[in-house]
Design a protein that fits this description.
The structure is a homodimer.
Chain A lengths: L2 E5 L4 E5 L41 E5 L2 E8 L13 E4 L2 E5 L3 E6 L13 H19 L6 E8 L11 E7 L4 H17 L3 H12 L3 E4 L3 E4 L10 E5 L11 H22 L4 E6 L14 E6 L6 H6 L2 E3 L3 H10 L3
Chain lengths: ~325, ~325
């Protein structure tokens, strides 16, 4: 029998559709394998084409060149210049589109990706995330910062060169406000952070844990919204990603690399998104929120039901996906 | 300069990304045209294969055969048998997956679709929607009913035969509760229904109107979440789709056919979803909500930013899309 499971952070129910459920291996992708060289002359993110990106926000140097570069997004959704203004005219509410939108070029190699990179290099990428996250929040016009990755066309990018993005918006998204509201209510009811309670409960039950390291736990959410939806939670309470320490970064890099390599091997290099959900550094001491990283492989297509209800239909069993992910090599 | 526009129903901001914006015609699809016969022997929805669907909920007869059939979904997300039960164990909240999930087979022809069908036949489909909508709400285990259509693979279906779906869930989705909360707040603040106010304001401004008929107005939302996102609103206040009258159904069929034909011609038969957002017939007299139909062509891919923020980046200008939609032939 199908069941509905509640995601306590979004407060949305997910249908775990046992009648439609597939075995984990059935989500393997059938992609044409494509040979990619180290450097592609037409790629704006490859070494030698630095003038094709608009400016340089920062870089990590390596052997006379660079290993990571951050640039403003050439096709930015929001513009860094101008004043944040609100204009209200009847039912039309507008904010001028100021904000920040940067690209983190994760490697000088065109043909690598986080699943294949050494753990140390992933740690460097995460350090750059932290730097940009803290820095963008210093802009007084910015109220929320989102770090995310689009990998592959189904995940929203046609750029092959390994990269992620960071966006600072001039208003807190309603989705974010709802989540903070839900975790605050949980705290009101119990005196405990919802994510801290989730870590404890998942570790105690053990059925959905993929990795359990010193600082992090990687698991399939009880109410996973889609097959192979994965959460990486810091074990210690921490509201803001801006507070992550070097030792924790190394451990997060291990968790991220391992789980992305397992997805790469187990599902034949599927497209995916991930996102870091975090409070601002200004809310560093908050008891009500706890940052985490959420990975969503794009192995299924959402349809009208999801659009119309906000509820997801997950055609896999979180516990079976966990078993598969434990067994597949990293 | 980009701008953020507020969707007052979802209370979510949409980035209208002028820097990334494309001309409306650039969203045209490059699909391989495929010859489809009237009847496909392997299609479970074609005449002659009635035994491949599990039972028959209702049908409209035509010339010794049928023109519309409703059947339970063979791969139902929720099951019609069993008791609705809640089981709470610590952080795990579960509802047994009881509910209703039916398929509305819209035609006995495999190779047609709503953009090509006569208006009278679309009116018949809408009458069947109304029948099933009211009937499913009679099930005491059902708390919300969603009518939706997936057209094409990007919209979540691989079935070519024209069909739509209706799902009754054993719990009201949180997304739906948030919308009702927002429209109720608007009513508290103004003493007026938000959708009634939107109809008046859009008609007065006129810049986003595609069709204005006796009972309906079809327009591009001010804060359209994606290119060619379209709303069809009844002009008269009506909380529940279950109250629609025959004369209104004929007019809705005209609006729906016209706009789907314009999309079909203007964008070369793109994939799309639509959904009817409505209160239950039990809330028939509610002043706080107003049903409507929302169409989302799948001409762009959502990415990590949308996942992580709930905000959409729309790479088109709603007013330019309106001009294009007015000009393209139906």
């Amino acid at each position: 029998m199908p069941e509905l499971r509640l995601n306590l952070i979004t407060r949305e129910w997910v249908i775990i559709a046992t009648e439609k459920a597939k075995r984990p291996g059935e989500f393997r992708q059938k992609k044409d394998k494509k040979y990619l060289p180290d450097i592609v002359s037409a790629c704006p993110f490859c070494p030698g084409n630095e003038n094709k990106t608009p400016g340089e926000v920062m870089k990590l140097a390596s052997d006379g060149g660079w290993k990571i570069r951050v640039t403003p997004n050439k096709f930015a959704a929001l513009t860094p210049e101008g004043e944040r203004q609100r204009i209200n005219e009847g039912l039309k509410h507008l904010i001028t589109g100021v904000g920040r939108h940067e690209v983190i070029i994760e490697s000088n190699l065109h043909n690598t990706n986080l699943a294949l990179m050494p753990q140390e290099d992933i740690a460097d990428v995460l350090k750059v995330y932290k730097n940009r996250f803290i820095d963008i929040y210093k802009d007084p016009r910015i109220e929320h910062v989102i770090i995310f990755k689009n990998y592959g066309e189904k995940a929203g990018t046609s750029i092959e060169h390994p990269h992620s993005q960071i966006v600072g918006t001039p208003v807190p998204p309603m989705q974010v406000r709802h989540r903070i509201d839900e975790t605050t209510r949980y705290f009101d009811n119990t005196g405990e952070c919802l994510m801290c309670a989730t870590v404890r409960s998942e570790l105690a039950e053990g059925k959905r844990i993929i990795l359990d390291t010193k600082h992090f736990v990687t698991f399939i959410p009880y109410a996973a919204l889609s097959p192979f939806h994965i959460w990486i939670f810091p074990k210690k309470h921490e509201a803001s990603f801006g507070d992550i320490k070097d030792e924790e970064i190394a451990d997060l890099a291990y968790n991220l690399k391992t789980v992305l390599a397992k997805i790469y091997n187990g599902l034949e290099n599927p497209d995916y998104n991930y996102v870091i959900r975090s409070e601002s550094p200004k809310e560093s001491g908050s008891e009500y929120f706890h940052w985490y990283l959420s990975i969503v492989p794009r192995v299924v297509q959402t349809a009208g039901f999801e659009l119309g209800s906000g509820m997801y239909v997950n055609t896999s069993l979180p516990e079976e996906i966990t078993d598969f992910m434990r067994r597949v090599k990293a």
